[in-house]
Amino acid sequence: MSLKLEDVKGIGKRVEDLKSAGIDSVEKLANAKVEDLTGIKGIGEASAQKFIESAKDMLGEKASDKSIDKDKVKEVGKEIDKDSDKDKVSKEEEEKKIQEEEEKKIQEEVKKLEEKQKKLQGKKVEKGDFILLKITAKTQKGNVFRVSSIDDAKKAGIYEEKKKHMYSPDFVIVGKPGFLNEGLTETLETMNYFEKKSVRIPPAKAFGKRDPSKIERIGITKFKKMNEGKNPEFGQEFVKKDGNRGVVTNIVQGRVIVDYNHPLAGQTLDYNIEVIDKIAEFNDKIEYFLISKGIPKENVLDFKINYIKENKLIEFTVPKQFLFQNIVFFKFGLAMDLQTHMAEEINDVKFIEIYEKINIPTSKSESVMKKVEEFNQEQEIQKEAEQKENTK
Predict the structure, then answer these.
(1) For residues 178-206, average pLDDT
(2) Which residue from 40, 290, 348, 365 lies 20 to 30 Å from 123 (Cα-Cα)?
(3) Please, which contacts does 138-144 make with residues 24 or more away whose CB atoms are closer than 8 Å?
(4) What is the DSSP letter of 325?
(5) What is the pLDDT of residue 85?
(6) What residue ranges do the domains of the chain occupy?
(7) What's this model's pTM, rounded to 2 decimal places?
(8) What tens digit of pLDDT does each residue of 268-319 get?
(9) What's the topology of domain 1-119?
C-alpha cells in the first residue's frame, strides 16, 4: 500500500502548498530540510520539524535530530488544532454565504416572475407570441394520452421513466402551424394569459378522419425485405423508405396490414388547456427550441451558445455526449425552426463539433509491457515499505 502525503499527521490543507513547492510524496518530505519548508507560506519552523518527523515515522525511519523539545511539539500540535478549528469556521461561513446568495437569487427570480405575471394578467394572447401551454388530453373513452407534468403522468397511469422529459408544458408559437392541431390553434387565439379552458375537438380539426387509402396490404416476403429480414409483429411500428410511419394492425392470409393513419385519426378529443407563461427573452427562446427538438432540459446548458448579433449568426458547440449520436435531423430541424420563427434575429446557424485527440498505444504489446512495468514498480515500492516497517 503506497503512502500518501495527505496521511502525514497534522498536515491538513497544507498538502497543496507542499506539492506546489515540489514536495509531493512522504519520502521527499522525510528527506526535506526545515528551511525547505519554512520558505512555504504558512509553515513555521516548529511546524516544519513536526511534519518532517511525522513523515520519517511513517517511513519507519528514526529521526536523526533528537533535540526537538516535546513541549514545543505539543505547542505546535495545539497550534495546528487551532488552525483546523479556524478552517472549519471559515468553511462554515463560506457555505452560509453561498446559501444566502442562492436564497437571494431565488427570491429575485420569484419577484421577477410575480412582476411578469402581473403585467400579463388579463392580457390577450396574440399571434406570434412565444408561450408555454399546459395540456391534458384524452379520448372519448377517457384514455389520457398527453400531459404536462410527471405528477399528471403518474396520476393518469401513463408514466414511463424513459419519456419523463416529455412530461412538460408545450412550447408554442401562437398561430404558427406545426405546434398544435387546428382546433387547439383556433382556441388558443381566443384566450388570455393564465386562462384555463376545456374544449372538445372533432376529428376534422384534430388528427383528421381515417383515410382508407392510408391502409396498405403487403405480402409477408416483401414485408420481410423491407423490415431488415425480420418477421412482422402485431402492433409494431413500421417506417417506409419515404418516411411514412405506420402500425402493423393485422397479419392475415399471407399479408401484412399496415395502417399509416395517425393513431388518433377519426377520434373526437377532449382537452384541458392553460396558458402559463410568455417567453420573451432571446436566450429563453433558444432554450425552448432546443427542448422542443428533444434535448432534455438538464442538458441544454451543456450546449455552448454564441450569438453574433451584427452577423445574425448563432453558433452551437455540441456537447461531447451528443457527438457520437445521430443528430443530423436534430441539427437540420433546429436550424429550420430558428431561421423560420426568429428570422429577424437569425440568418445562419452554425454547429461546432470538437473531437479531442485520443492517445492510443502504437501496439498492443507496448501497452501490455507498460502495464507490467508499472505493476513491478508498485510491487517494489510496497516491498520496501514493508521492509522498513519490519525494522522499526
Answers:
(1) 95
(2) 290
(3) 138/269, 138/270, 139/264, 139/267, 139/269, 139/270, 140/267, 140/268, 140/269, 140/270
(4) S
(5) 63
(6) 1-119, 121-210+264-280, 212-259
(7) 0.61
(8) 999 999 999 999 999 999 999 999 998 988 899 999 999 999 999 999 999 9
(9) DNA polymerase; domain 1 (1.10.150)
Q: All 3 cell numbers of residue 265?
A: 385519426
- Average pLDDT over the chain reads 85
Gap between the terminal Cα atoms of the chain: 17
Distance CA 117, CA 113 (A): 6
Task: For residue 249, give the 3-state DSSP assignment.
Answer: strand
Cβ neighbourhood burial of 303 (10 Å; 0-12, 13-18, 19+): middle
| CATH class of the domain at 212-259 | mainly beta
Instruction: Decide if 259 contacts 218 (C-beta within 8 A).
Output: no
Domain 121-210+264-280 fold is: Chitinase A; domain 3 (3.10.50)
CA torsion angle 199 202 205 211 (round to 10):
150
Contact 68, 47 (CB under 8 A): no
| pLDDT range class, residue 74, cuts 50, 70, 90 | low
Distance in angstroms (rounded) separating the CA atoms of residues 353 and 319? 8
Residues of the chain above pLDDT 90, percent: 49
Helix, strand counts (H, E) of the chain = 11, 12
Q: What are the distances in angstroms from CA 36 to CA 18, 51, 219, 366?
A: 10, 12, 86, 40
DSSP structure string for 109-157? HHHHHHHHHHHHTTPBP-TT-EEEEEEEEEETT--EEE-SSHHHHHHHT
- Report the pLDDT value the prediction gives residue 65, as an integer from 0 to 100: 42
Residue that is written with C-alpha cell 421577477 in the block: 112
260-263-268 Cα angle (round to 5): 130
Show the DSSP H helices in the chain as ranges.
15-20, 26-30, 34-38, 45-59, 70-120, 150-156, 182-188, 220-226, 282-292, 328-341, 364-390
Q: How many residues does the chain have?
A: 392
